[in-house]
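Per your request, structure below.
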């Protein structure tokens, strides 16, 4: 991500077109539940104005006219994108928005990636590794923590995640006995 894009949150990548009216298919970087806020309104419905960032990192503003979810994908219709040809030109573009303040305890995925994770035990802190991936299960997210040859799938549950420090890129967790 270029320096000029540091204040953006990447929501997903356009991977295909949908229909003939200029709609695009987005693979989300967020769990689908992240797109819905209290009251059932979509995060993107609230945002409306986004940036389309091409593979070279150049961005242009776009306005979302319509958003829908179907079978795990997000479908978007942008103002001025009215044909399948126009939509096809947006493949591999990323959809981003300006960072918005989040509720306490909520974090942007891109801020958690690469974070050092430590387990708290009787003797102090033990390094588990770095977060290399995050995926949703429906019930909760899973942090993929990698340390050289070992990988841990760690549930992102409030009762297990004791501290997240974005500035220090550090997370402290309680390990369940199963891990």
């Amino acid at each position: 991500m270029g320096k000029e894009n540091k204040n953006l949150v990447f929501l997903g990548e356009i991977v295909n077109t949908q229909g003939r009216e200029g709609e695009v298919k987005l693979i989300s970087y967020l769990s689908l539940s992240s797109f819905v806020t209290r009251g059932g309104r979509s995060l993107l419905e609230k945002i409306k104005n986004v940036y389309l960032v091409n593979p070279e990192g150049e961005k242009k503003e776009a306005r979302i006219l319509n958003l829908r979810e179907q079978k795990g994908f997000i479908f978007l219709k942008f103002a001025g994108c009215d044909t399948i040809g126009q939509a096809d030109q947006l493949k591999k573009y990323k959809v981003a928005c300006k960072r918005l303040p989040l509720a306490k305890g909520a974090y942007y995925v891109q801020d958690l990636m690469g974070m050092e994770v430590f387990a708290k035990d009787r003797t102090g802190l033990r390094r588990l590794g770095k977060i290399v991936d995050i995926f949703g299960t429906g019930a909760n997210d899973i942090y993929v923590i990698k340390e050289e040859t070992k990988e841990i799938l760690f549930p992102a549950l409030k009762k297990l995640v004791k501290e997240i420090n974005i500035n220090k890129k550090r997370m402290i967790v309680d390990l369940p006995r199963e891990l």
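The chain is about 10% helix and 50% strand.

Regards,
D.
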